[in-house]
Amino acid sequence: MVLQRVFLFGFFVWSQVVADVFVVAPLKGGVNTVTGARPFRKDLETLNGPERDLYLQAIAEIQKADETDKLSWFQLAGIHGLPVATWDNVAPYKNNPGNVGYAVHGCQLFLPWHRAYVLLLENIVSSHALDIAKRYPVGTRSTYITAAQNLRLPYWGWEKKPAVPSLVMDRTVKINSPNGPTTIDNPLEAFSFHPPISPEWAFYNGVDRTFRCPDSQFHTNYTKFEDDWISTCANCRKDLYSTYMDGSDSWPQAATGGGGNIGIENIHGQLHTVLGGYMVDIQASAFDPAFFLHHVNVDRIWEIWSAIHPTNKYIESRTCNAETFASPAPIGENLTSPLYPFHMDSRGSFHTPQSVHYTKDLGYAYEDVQDWKFSNPDQLAADVISRVKREYQDLAGKKFVSQSDTNNTASAATQPKRWIIDFNLTLDTDQSAIVYFFYGQPPSNPDTWKTAENLAAFQAIPMNAQITLRSAQKIIAPIDAKVASSGNSKAVAPPAPLTDGAIPQFLKDQLDWRVAVSNGLNSTIATAPNITIQVGDQAILSVDDNGLTKYGSITMHPDLAWSCTK
Questions:
Q1: From 3.30.360.10, 1.10.1280.10, 3.90.70.10, 3.40.630.30, which CATH number describes the 26-154+165-189+318-387 domain?
Q2: Predicted structure pTM score
Q3: pLDDT digits (tens, 9 = 90+) for 190-237
Q4: Measured CA distances, 155 to 131, 292, 366, 448 (Å)
């Protein structure tokens, strides 16, 4: 036994431990132990005052820490992937771990693993914030200490406001520091390596700071990025609302795809890809400060979905064909699967999906899901659904389906349907991709594809060394009024609305597709990608009082299939 200083319940304490481990503990500051009310993780756009001052200074301090310090930004970001190194004494499962970090992708553990990861940073930010608060003058010190105790990590709510927040883009930011008002380098705009990164990092070699949507000189270029970002957010927002309101998906399907929706993980991946630069590469993405802002929002999305679907079984026991730094393939998925390398106590036990399941056990909440105000899960679900409908009211009455009998008692054969595109795409591990589907031929300029009038759907897939075959990537391809009213001469506008019988022929005549691949810097059009495509439909069986829609099983159409192999 040795004595180790560990961060526990918002404070550093000395404890007997079996190894030199960092305990990722729930935060207790600001938690009402009587009612269960907890401080909110707030939208970055609404974070202000002392909490904003402390958050920015805490992130800046973590980024400036020596890169050999395991609680530095460099080491914390490295947990996710590069530089593929041991963290907190959790050794690799083999001597040559390859090019993957501890992060889990493409399976049910994706959401709980990243919840523990975000909680780790929240622990460290909370500690720094409290230390910084104690440096303020006596007149404001207590205000800042209270703010530090209530501070939780903010999120980037892209689905609320698609414009990129200025606090993510600006090179400098004004704050009120312990020494008074000042301007500092914005720690959310980029992370600066010190020293610059090593030659093993492919085209990142010698670049001293992270970048997004870069030009050829590795400089962030938000001008060319803005339209792509807004159109991607609109696409993902529609997919997200469909995922929330789908009453048929199991938890694994909602989390990672496989039902009629693309799933939370795939929605998250599209935002990674469109940001470009470091964010497009799963193994390097955590160095970009936008990563944690994005993943707090992913965690929020999971919390909202869970509140809407309280009876869905969490984590189905099975295996996932992926490997990580600490786990060989296939990875076992169950409630007690260890979430390496996150220790939950000083004895060396690891967090599990079970230990991070409920935010009430972790010391934070989101304004969208205030569970302590309701006596049972059904009441909470009704409240959260009401909030979602208000936020997505522009989509709530829109049916991305064919027109048919809307009687809920009708058979599946006569019910209206939603139509999906199911594709399998194989990529090299150093590539990301965006798959576009059009009604008719796409515009000649690829830069306009995301905003094309005849765009049916698209999905972005980030680089991921863990998964080289992206199987069963599903996209909902809406047959809606947009096509019927399109003035694009390259698309044949169908009669509005289309009936089930007319849709297959329309898709056979008009559906076209393209694949763009990227290494994070440059995009090219894949002339012969390894891809297979098939169209299917799902009957809408019923809609309950809350608006949750039940779908039948997916029926694939063999005559609506295409393939291209190298």
A1: 1.10.1280.10
A2: 0.90
A3: 999 998 776 566 556 667 889 888 776 777 777 777 878 888 898 899
A4: 23, 8, 10, 29
